Amino acid sequence: MKKIAFALAAAGIFVTAGLGHADTLADVKARGTLKCGVSQGLAGFSAKDDKGQWSGFDVDFCRAVAAAIFDDASKVEYVPLSADARFPALQKGEIDLLSRNSTWTMQREADLKLLFAAVSYYDGQGFLVPVAKKVDTALELDKSKVCTQSGTTSVGNARDFFKQNNMALELIELPTVDEVVKAYDEGKCDVLTTDVSQLYALRLRLAKPADYIVLPDVISKEPLGPVVRQGDDVWLNAVKWSFYALLNAEELGISQATLEQALKSQKPDVQRFVGTDGSYGEQLGLTKDWAVRIVKNVGNYGEVFERNIGTQSKLGIPRGINQLWSAGGIQYAPPIR
Amino acid sequence: MRLRMTGAALAAASVAILAALSFSAADAQVRPPATLGSQIVDVPEKPGYVPSAEEEQLDPAFRRQPVYFRTNEAPGTIIIHTNERFLYFVQGDNRALRYGIGVGRDGFQWAGLQKVSRKAEWPDWTPPPEMIQRQPYLPRWMAGGPGNPMGAAALYLGSTVYRIHGTNMPDTIGMAVSSGCFRLINPDVQDLFNRVPVGTKVVIRQAPEL
Question: Which of A75, A125, A129, A308 could pair with A220 as two cysteines, CB 3.0-4.6 Å apart?
């Protein structure tokens, strides 16, 4: 254990000397706040209310990392970023962490020299249809008029999907999201296609949201997750395991309501999680109770999901593919041990 | 020095992952819903009460619906997540039909594998002695039919006393009630009855214990 800690410390010094800015965890601790890049406003994911308070699924991840470091989820400085500005801001060190509905692609790691710490939300392209159409699957969309935003990957994905399944497609491409929603509301097309999370957000802007459903089919892979710079493994680990703490808490049955009970648990995997056994948090550069701090301040993954985007929230997104691997989904965290 | 450390760490990590796979597959755990407590509510049975169609209109989350569901169980299998209050009927291709259920005290005590051993429509009701003790005014036996707490159908689970059945109290769907096994509203249990043959595999999953 000591040897590993020593090696990590040595590596930290080495990289710091090489790049000038590669001990983000130490910087954050010294500064007293986490600089977290978020979107400029996306319902359920990151949005600022009229009192200046940020909330949302992506915001809660910033709060979880701050909680793990400071035991105070409010120690976050939010930096709202446009799609174009997000990666340069991270590369230039203006933020410590990007938590802004960004898709993990090879180009972003290979070319932009960034690293995705985990997949916090498995998104993908889907279809919004009127309930009245009585459609259960995307395979019944033959001869549909489909609206989507031009210049996005949604265009090619939709063309490929319809062609592969021998269905006729009339694709109506519009330059902005607003125009897409307007055209759809006016009945100029009977299907709207983009990423599923966005479909649920756009549905809220229609005149009668309840008259539309999102089909269960997903035709592309859009894994969203938090991003850090390359060359700072200690920070990558802290961010990655903060996310896995959220998932492991849910899998172990540890929530804000059961945390007190978990602290007294005799079950080995629960004891390792809450830090009554082992010193995994300290080895990570955090504290013994790092995971307890996350659950206490933010809750577990299921709580974060339901509060911001789940079926009980305004957005109403079902867990679906983002359910735990043990409950019919694909969210899976390595164990704490 | 650094390289050797990394190699050792990698080896340790892969061993840990392998161990996790073999351990966890046998120890499947489900999510405790944020909205539901695990406390058991004492709701007295109301034999003779016939619910209206409006009462059988459940909250959207508990209505019968097709959902994304990834599993290695074969199509046709029933999977019950007691803590989520959902019953899944596996359809294959990552889909399942999901039904909202109410679970009983007994539903919290056991996990495991059963088979549907018998099916019955509008079964008779014989309240167990514990229930008679709590509610002494209950009949000792009641013929099947509308108003019967067993509801429109029952699927018997192996040689146990447990079953998946209907209910005349639709408002207990989503709850843990002190009597009853796994209950669905009557239209749902009829739907399930028509889809499920005797011999169907039933997997019952519990919330993890702290």
Answer: A125
